[in-house]
Amino acid sequence: MSSVHGADEFPEDCLPPERDYPSRDALFASINAWAAPRGYAFTTGRSTKEKSGKQTVTFSCDRAVRPSRPADDPQRRRRRRTTTRGTGCHFSVLAKESLDRTRWSLKHRPGTQSSTHNHAPSRSTAAHPVHRALSSKDQVVIDTLTNVGLKPKEITAYLRQNSTSAASRQDIYNCIAKSRRKAIERASREADHPPSTDTLEREAGVPEINAFVPAGDQEMEQTT
């Protein structure tokens, strides 16, 4: 999925608007939904906690990591692209937890450095791991299709047609491998600790024999 903002500069409304959210996760999902069509992504930065227990979390541009070597360093050029995305970008926002811990507020940081990127916007959301993350629904689909025996290529083709995810083929293959590991671990646990006969009967809906005592037998038991 390509970014709808195709220019070489970020739009004026690059910062997500300040507002309150019912949870930290809801805030994080919202600001990344805002960032995606504008050519960037947020990741979780440092977190601080006050004596009252209230937290403040910094959500930073995912290119905030400073490169370990200069751009013209030959060894850096030989590394994989995924390890050289960092530009030391200071673009970031703050998420502040309320004192009663019932909501999170998105706040802009003071100064222009925190509201300005030091790199060009991405042309595609697939350039950001956060935007490539598979939803819980997609993961359930992958688990189901893996369990019924579909091949990775078939599962990938299905998701391409039925999901809006920007996940790469490798992301999907990694999820399939994780699903297979979980299935093997589950089968191993069941082999080591097989369910009892009573458990199997309950799961199968087999009625308990003692629950069905003929009325005549009940009267005989009471007279004896």
TrEMBL record:
Biological processes, Gene Ontology terms: L-valine catabolic process; thymine catabolic process
Chain spans, region Disordered: 43-89, 107-132, 184-224
UniProt feature, compositional bias: Polar residues: 111-125
Bias kind Basic and acidic residues: ranges: 63-75, 184-205
Superkingdom per UniProt: Eukaryota
GO molecular function, one term: methylmalonate-semialdehyde dehydrogenase (acylating, NAD) activity
PANTHER family documented for this protein: MALONATE-SEMIALDEHYDE DEHYDROGENASE (PTHR43866), METHYLMALONATE-SEMIALDEHYDE DEHYDROGENASE [ACYLATING], MITOCHONDRIAL (PTHR43866:SF3)
Family listed: Belongs to the aldehyde dehydrogenase family.
Name recorded for this polypeptide: FAR1 domain-containing protein
Upper lineage: Eukaryota, Fungi, Dikarya, Ascomycota, Pezizomycotina
